[in-house]
Amino acid sequence: MRTLPNPARTEEHRAEAPTSRQPARSRRPLALPLAVLGLAVAGAALGALQLGRRAPIGVSTELAIALSLAGLLLAVGICVRQVVSAGAGEQLLQVAGTRWGTARRARRTASRYAVRVTPPPDHPPVPDHPPVSGHPPVSRSEPELDVETVRAAAKEFLELYHGEDPHAGPLEPRLTEVMREIDTTGTYWHTAEELAFGARVAWRNNKRCIGRLYWHSLQVRDLRTVSDAGSVAAHCFEHLSTAYNGGKIRPMISVFAPETPSRPAPRIWNELLIRYAGYEQADGRTLGDPRYRAFTSKLIQRGWRPPERPGAFDVLPLVVETVEEGPRMFQLPDQVVHEVPLEHPELKWFADLELRWHAVPVISNNRLEIGGVSYPAAPFNGWYMGTEIGARNLGDSDRYDMVPVVAERMRLDTSHEATLWRDQALVEINRAVLHSFTTNGVTVTDHHTESRRFLIHLEKEQRAGRGCPADWSWIVPPMSGSQTPVFHRYYEADNQVPNFVNDPESTCRALRGGPPAFP
Length: 519
Prior knowledge:
By secondary structure, the chain is of the alpha+beta class. The protein has two domains: about 20-110, no CATH class; about 145-275 and about 315-510, Nitric Oxide Synthase, Chain A, domain 1 (Alpha-Beta Complex). The chain contains 16 helices and 16 strands. The chain has helices at about 10-15, 30-50, 60-85, 85-95, 100-110, 145-165, 170-185, 190-205, 230-245, 295-300, 385-395, 405-410, 420-440, 445-465, 470-475, 505-510; strands spanning about 220, 250-255, 265-270, 280, 285-290, 320, 325-330, 340, 355-360, 360-365, 365-370, 375, 380, 385, 445, 500. A four-stranded mixed sheet has the order 1-2-13-10, with helices on both faces. It has a three-stranded antiparallel sheet with strand order 3-6-7, covered by helices on one side. Helix 2 runs antiparallel to helix 3 (about 60-85), helix 11 (about 385-395) crosses helix 13 (about 420-440) and helix 12 (about 405-410) crosses helix 13 (about 420-440). It is globular, with a radius of gyration of 31 Å. About 40% of the residues are buried. Residues about 1-35, about 45-60 and about 80-145 have low confidence and may be disordered.
């Protein structure tokens, strides 16, 4: 990872990545007037001396001589600039303007390592673009598989695995076996050890996740023989219970059947295993989570029946799609949905808002890519950082938008923005989240602690001789960013494999409820 001294965080640094360098504008149109000006200065000065008068502007004779020489040199220099090649002229200008060039290069260097700042979504960071490495990842949505791409990706992964794990055994026999299998079937089957290693490294390579310090502790559930919708749903429910672990959240992934040339893999439509419905009201407002209003509407059209009295925190059903069965809906059992009611340590009225949030953030619509093998159904979880709930899910204006509500209950001056009422209310919402999770014995972390942990992770990766990709706009918390150490750095944001990929089609299904993967 490359780090640079932190320049002032101006809008220039925080806007977007710079475009490629443009050629300097030609200065030749100004050459002729400047040459004439130089000759005029020289002529005026010399003329004054020849007539026995003082030079123009009342300067001394010595200065008149100096001006004449300067004018002649300026004229000659500009003429030479016209005659010599553009490359030679640029060298002369660079010699004359070293300081200016150095300052300009410094500005370009700072700009080159700036990052595009885009608002992250509310859930734990995951990539939304396919990873890029020496070999592009295999896209199983394409009708034909590129066997050579699979072979190259498999070789790259196996070299990584055998290079990092001293217990993996010799590389060549396994590589030969895999290449033979790919030539025969178009894909290959990971060993249990390869699968576990690949899933953990995918977390390690996830440039949008701040909580990667514990990547090696990810528990991997090998469910690759599970492919029907009912069994996938049942194992997802089991995942929720096992990962909850009585409140001591376990990082966990459940890997279902892979995509193969002979059979498409199952898909999970939901963005997370637990999400809340959004109901459009007659006045245009939303009861519940506006992010899932379209998704909720589509599920109702497909036959889902909301509670008799809809509320702001109704758990959506799980949608699993297979090529044989199409999309099927499964209501989550109450015993696997662990939620935390939100209270404030000092503001007693906060409980009257009846806010709550689920305990285990299981991301479920990402594709796991390991060595050319794609696992579209591989739900995984860590634990919540408080700001994901307080600043994003509850705080964003296009989500639950609780900041104005809390500000009003706090009797803050909301007449103008300079009172910073939004900031005050947002802090108290986040305090309530941290307080409530902690008092209920559910694992949660604050953004200051997690930022320091991320720097520990960076140091460990550097000592191991590995790069650590990171997306600044995701790593920096959505609240009090400049007060965290991760703010004051630049990062390499390249994509690496193995990794988690969020395909545009899966995002569309998660937010709009379709179209199906297998129409």
